[in-house]
Amino acid sequence: MNYENYDPSFPDQPVVDLYLPLWANLPSFRSKPAFIWAEDGSNGATKNSTITYAQLNESVHSISTQLLTQLQRGDTVVILRSPGFELVEIIFGCQRAGLLCIPVFPPDPSFTKENYHHLVRVLSQTKPKAAITHHDYIARVQRYISLSSDNHKLAEMLQKLTWISTSDIKDKKVSSNMGSLPYNSCRPNELYLIQYTSGATGIPKPVLVTAGAAAHNVRVARKAYDLYPSSVIVSWLPQYHDCGLQFLLLTIISGATSVLTSPGAFVNRPGLWLELISKF
């Protein structure tokens, strides 16, 4: 296989998820931060939390195992989570489970603020089997379904979904004997992501991305940016945005560390981004 590898010590992998156990099993990388989440406080001070390569790999393994108790490989799922570690873990967990995922910003579950049109578009066009979200969000959606008399189409689409709580797939521990298990994740030629365009110049359109194409894209970016394991990335872009998601993949294939914050924090205080660049 001919990839864009520039370091023969670390052979390129056909899909991004295969890089994760590679780094996590190296002694010098186990405790290295893969992602740092910077939460901006009301007084301007940031509170940082960290997930290491070993922790991320273990969480992804657990999530993928739990997902496959309710879904089958190749199923389509919509992820309704705000930016954060949990969304990062679930995106990688879906790839390891061999699922086709669609990350979408969750509209207010009261669906009264005319902010649900994109969700309707996603559900109509992709016809996912399940939705993954927080248990409180599920409870509010179920309440909307039971009381809805205004939008029967939306209520019907929501009712057809299998709702999976993030706590059910994250909080249950499974055997971590990953080394002896065959790798059955997305293959390079298989779809693993439906990415919607931003909608800045027109109605958002679904783009079908194979696992191999995503890996190729970030390998080219890794070479262009000259990224190495010692590199640090700082981003406020949401993880369902094309660049925001690619920075997650780029971090993993480079063995780098990515410092993330929410788009809302950046919009409220743009100087936060520059502060994080200076700090890290």
Automatic annotation (TrEMBL):
InterPro entries: AMP-dep_synth/lig_dom. It comes from the Eukaryota. Residues 29-279 form the AMP-dependent synthetase/ligase domain. It holds the Pfam family AMP-binding. PANTHER family: DISCO-INTERACTING PROTEIN 2 DIP2 -RELATED, OS01G0636300 PROTEIN. This is AMP-dependent synthetase/ligase domain-containing protein. It comes from Populus tomentosa.
